[in-house]
Fold each of these.
Amino acid sequence: MNNSFKKLTAVICGSEENNDELKKQFNQIGIEIIFLKTISVLPLPITDISILDKEYDYTIFTSKHSVTCFFDLLKKNDKQLVTKKVICIGKKTKEVCLTYGDFNIDIPVQNSSSGIFTYFLNKYLIDKSILIPGSKISNLWYVDRLKTNGADVKFIPVYDNIATKRDELLEVLEEINKSKIDLFIFTSPSAFNNLVEIEKIDDVSKYFSGKIIAAIGDVTKKGIEEKRLKVDIVPENFNFNDLIKSIEKFYLKTEKNENV
């Protein structure tokens, strides 16, 4: 975005409280960022300890929270992850995972559950064991597909995404209310649903009237559209780098149309 653009303000709803590097990247395209932590991560205990005693052919981590909560769970139970291969959704997840050990890690091309399915599409999975630590509300449509292809899949919920208490967000909410918000960015369906819950939004159409909405991922887009809202921006690859490119492209196109 060039200097002719007016300064825009965006709210990122998700689990981040602050991210200086991300702020810098958005500032470079002319957007001031406000982080609204609509998601709080609640670690969950494990009900079947025996799952942690096995060796797995593959372990799948879908987020950095699945990594941190799972390894905290291992530590509490004096266990170690024994796996031949780790699949991480996204570079950030891989970076966090490598802080816990020197694992053999692959990253699917797509940062999504579809990416996981595609990764395993042409692999021989008969009698292969797969461990998936994840969110209690994970979209697990691909698990049945993996099982159908012969894999022994174990999913364990290691955390839950809950709405942050409104009292913890008063300062940020006040900043948002005082600002002219141009763009809302949602990192997951929970990020959106929790905002609606936190702010007790009865009329979502009125609340988001005149605002541009961006969603990271098709599942997030679908969840927002179910509330009869228009999602204007979805990056081709579900990460912030591609999101920033998509946002810049959107506003460049918008400015061009306005100047015609």
Amino acid sequence: GAAPNGQGDFRLRSAGSGLYYGPGHSHNCNWAVEGNVKNAQRAEVRAALRWALWAWCRQIYIADNEYTRQRVQKILDGETPKIKTHKDLWYRMIRAFQAKGRENFRVIKVASHQTEEQKKTETKKQRKLREMNEGADDQAVKGAQRDQPPLQLVVERQRARAIGLAVQKMLIRVVC
């Protein structure tokens, strides 16, 4: 999941999710996160849900987001995690794992956004996992780009912000 515009004015936010199975794989995909909540956490959970729903055989989910990884692991262990946000997605995921058999799924953690120094010391397996994660991140960014707000709204918001800052500066000068 990715939310390059996940902060600030909610009307300007965009978030996307993506799944990556390997270079040129026909199941690689990306999409914009739907609904009013558009942040990186929801995008990550949405990606995990689609993975669970689309799985056609034993699968491993490579997660760089600890929040998502921990909760998916708890569900796979047969526990019900404490869910405060994105309940709609988590409950659908629980049902998907129950229907398809929790034993057919596995989740592993991969470090994200590694430095060049870390990349130099990684094993072959760690490099493969990092490359898969980077592919998923690229897909998620493409998904977020599908959901860009209209340019007119962005321009209006920037103009309103500039006016607000100018008014604040003027009031500070008046008071001081």
